[in-house]
Amino acid sequence: MDCKQFREALDCYVHGELSAEAAAAADAHRRECVRCARATEHLLRLRREVKRVVNVHAPPAFLEQRVRTALRPRWMAPWRHGAPAGLRRTAAAVFVVLGLVTLWGATSNTKPFSRMAAVALDRVAVHLDEASRADIEGTVLCRDCELEHEYGVKASCKLIGHHGAIAGADGRIWNIVEQAASADLIHDNALLGKRVHVRARFFRRAGAIEVESYRVDAPARNTARSTASNEVVAKLELAPR
Amino acid sequence: MRRRRRFDTLALPHLAGVYRLARQLGGVDRADDLTQETFLRAWAHFDQFNPTTNCRAWLCRILHNVWVSQWRKTRLELPVADVEESRTEPYYDWEDEFADQDLSADMQRALSQLPEAYRWAVLLADVEELSYQEIAATMECPIGTVMSRINRGRRMLERALREERNRAFARQPTAARLR
Predict the structure, then answer these.
(1) Cα–Cα distance between B127 and B106 in angstroms, integer?
(2) Helices B104-113 and A34-55 sit at what angle, rounded to 10 degrees?
(3) Measuring CA to CA, which of A62, A144, A214, B3 is 20 to 30 A from A70?
(4) Which fold has domain B104-178?
(5) Rg of the Cα atoms in chain A
(6) Is A42 close to B94, i.e. CB distance below 8 A?
(7) Can you tell me the distance from the alpha carbon of B135 to that of B140, in angstroms, rounded to the nearest whole number?
(8) Contact A15 B32 (CB under 8 A)
(9) Where are the beta strands (DSSP E) in chain A?
(10) Which of B1, B43, B107 sits opposite A53 (nearest CB)?
């Protein structure tokens, strides 16, 4: 292999795309020719620099959680880009059955079906809307950014800052009532993407929570600093009202 | 459930890599959106992924398609390089350049100056370290085109770096240049 042949094969050589014989010939030429050896080193260095410059950017802490949230709920995910034929058939069958049941209820002489269903749904709704205390484990996300991503709402976070909210395990996003105890959860950008355990009163119909206390978990992985000792990094307790 | 677990195991670990490439394609403002849309599309078409192939290359291909479709919504045509070269050129003038210089300061600027097709080829080759065959599948072009794009992209990168260096050198005071 001479210099011209070596330079023409240099890209493939440093990329490991040459055949075994060609790579051996290139190795031999590289050992003999100082200029070609330097050219190879230069190209390898250029590749390293490209990789280093690109890899210096880490994704924001909340991005993985945002992607995970966007992938939920699991049963709805296939509908984002058109449901597969099996799901379409199943959905059609469910609608047909529901329609038949509704028709039977409407035409039967017993208590009107629609009224029975409405009463039952009301009972469930009233039961669910009891403002009860509960714990929720979730991730702090910017409510406005999520609305922008999901619905194209024009968020003004770049101007006035993010507005924290809690995304639960089911993907539902809970608004946080603005109070002294919850000010950091709403306004501290450093908490975005963090896992939190929150004790709160839940107002389900309003989709809001009144935070009583919370604690922030350290990232579970991907950081060398993630150790058991710093798992709980903050805790805020409220004085009883 | 099993499908989701497989997706979490095979695809999600590449989120950081996809984000970095998205950042090179669309800039910091659009990188989050590109990454999220890539994974949503990957999840929607996960049944089509062949587990014996490189998941990262598959995600790169989706990312590129997402970027192209988003680009088409806002621009009339893609920023495809004007002239495709069919053959590679040797690096005859490389060996004495930048011997002991720190390239990183100018590299990002030089990368962003590359036409999209060449930048994408260089990134897939040098950052993702995909094989030529995988790059060809990702870019949906023949391997010969991949080779010429990588070769030409690197030469453009080298030229842009040299110009940055020359400009920086010209800005230096005379005494510093003579030193």
Answers:
(1) 17
(2) 80
(3) A214
(4) Arc Repressor Mutant, subunit A (1.10.10)
(5) 30
(6) yes
(7) 8
(8) no
(9) 132-142, 164-168, 173-176, 195-203, 208-217, 232-236
(10) B107
> Tokens 């010429």 map to which residue?
B148
Structure tokens given for A235: 């805790």
Interface of B with A in 36-95 (CB under 8 A): 36, 39-41, 43-45, 88, 90-92, 94-95
CA distance A84 to A183: 44
Which residues 6+ apart lie within 8 Å of A204 measured at CB? A128, A129
What is the rounded CA–CA span in Å between residue A17 and residue B150? 13
Contact A185, A176 (CB under 8 A): yes
B66: amino acid identity, one letter: V
Structure confidence by residue, pLDDT tens digits, B154-165: 888 888 888 877
Structure tokens at B57: 């290359």
Inter-chain CB proximity A10 and B23 less than 8 Å: no
Contact yes or no for A70 and B36 at CB 8 A: yes
The residue extents of the domains of chain B are 2-74, 104-178
For residues B141-158, average pLDDT: 88
Q: What is B2-74's CATH number, 1.10.340.30, 1.10.10.60, 1.10.1740.10, 3.50.90.10?
A: 1.10.1740.10
Give me the torsion for CA of A149, A152, A153, A156, rounded to 10°.
Answer: 60
**Of the partner residues A17, A43, A64, the one whose CB lies closest to the CB of residue B132:** A17
Whether residue B98 contacts residue B165, with contact meaning beta carbons closer than 8 Å, is answered with: yes
Q: State ipTM.
A: 0.78
Contact B122 A15 (CB under 8 A): no
Nearest of A203, A191, A127 to residue A163 by alpha carbon:
A191
**pTM (2 d.p.):** 0.56
Q: Three-class SS of residue A194?
A: coil
Neighbours of A58 (CB within 10 A): 11
pLDDT in tens, A146-188: 888 878 888 888 788 888 999 887 778 899 998 888 888 998 8
> 3-state class of A15 per DSSP?
coil
H or E element at residue A195: strand A195-203
What dihedral do alpha carbons A61, A64, A66, A71 form, nearest 10°? -170
User: Mutate which of B69, B103, B152 to disrupt the A interface (most A C-beta within 10 Å)?
Assistant: B103
Average pLDDT over residues A123-140: 73
> Which among A42, A57, A59 is the nearest to B95, CB-wise?
A42
Q: How many Cα neighbours within 13 Å face the side chain of A166? A: 28
